[in-house]
Design brief:
By secondary structure, the chain is mainly α. The protein contains eleven helices and two strands, in the order H-H-H-H-H-E-E-H-H-H-H-H-H. Strand 1 and strand 2 (about 130-135) form a beta hairpin. The protein has one domain: MetI-like fold. About 30% of the residues are buried.
Length: about 270
């Protein structure tokens, strides 16, 4: 730690506890406690049960979890491909002049600058009539998620490209390597830790996306956040809490797997 004195460290840990527990840990603990309860009429939940989880991992909830996973994986891969391409293109434009790079960066950051419900409305209006009719299909949900998370992939990869040592590319080019070979065998492997981190971030954001999804999802493609919202809206707070814990657990498991990939890529 930056604080060297013992009293200063205790004060720092105390301040961390005062800020972390009420703002971050306590709300999550409340959700976990509610997921194991049947009613909550006093200061603490009562009626302990695991029945909420039995319902959360089967039937419509299991289908919603599968839908969320498929949507998040598809949106993350698409966002990573588009965001990486845009970051590489922006880096190339930056060598010729900063104006083109600024324009490209601004275009890819626009979805973050507006509320996600606006993005959902824009996608709904744009793809609700021919020639590209996606309304009522799962593709429109995946497309909206891709648009929302591509900006984060673009920013993450752009920051990594700035930190790359150009000596590796110059050495490969001096040995006669073509630009495509340099890209696939030099630049992308060096960017692999940042690519995996961007994929994990995109996945987590897609798993929790609700606002735009509420405007677009068809009845046969309901992601888990929508399932949680509808359950709590009907008054099923404890069942919704169990589904929310399942959503958190699944997201954390995938992020841990991505973290291991990132660690191995860093060692390479």
């Amino acid at each position: 730690m930056l604080v060297h004195s013992k009293s200063g460290r205790w004060a720092a840990w105390g301040l961390f506890g005062l800020l972390f527990l009420p703002l971050f840990a306590l709300p999550l603990l409340v959700v976990v406690a509610a997921s194991f309860s049947t009613h909550w009429s006093g200061a603490f939940p009562s009626g302990p049960t695991t029945g909420n989880y039995a319902a959360a991992v089967r039937g419509e909830s299991l289908q919603a979890l599968t839908t969320s996973l498929v949507t998040a994986v598809a949106a993350s891969l698409l966002a990573l491909a588009v965001g990486t391409w845009a970051a590489l293109a922006a880096a190339a434009l930056g060598k010729r002049g900063k104006r083109g790079k600024r324009i490209l960066d601004t275009l890819f950051m626009l979805p973050v600058a507006v509320p996600s419900v606006v993005v959902g409305l824009a996608v709904l209006v744009a793809f609700s009539r021919p020639p590209v009719l996606l309304n009522g299909t799962s593709s429109i949900v995946i497309l909206a998620h891709t648009i929302l998370v591509t900006a984060f992939a673009h920013q993450s990869v752009s920051a990594a490209i700035v930190r790359l040592d150009p000596a590796y590319e110059q050495a490969a080019a001096s040995l006669g390597a073509r630009p495509a070979y340099v890209l696939w065998r030099v630049r992308l492997p060096l960017l692999l830790p940042s690519l995996s981190a961007a994929a994990g971030l995109c996945f987590a954001l897609s798993m929790g996306e609700l606002s735009a999804t509420m405007m677009l999802y068809p009845p046969d493609w309901m992601p888990l956040p929508v399932r949680i919202f509808t359950a709590t809206d009907r008054g099923s707070l404890f069942g919704g809490s169990a589904v929310a814990v399942v959503l958190m657990a699944m997201t954390l498991l995938v992020l841990l797997a991505v973290s291991r990939v990132r660690t191995r890529a860093s060692y390479r």
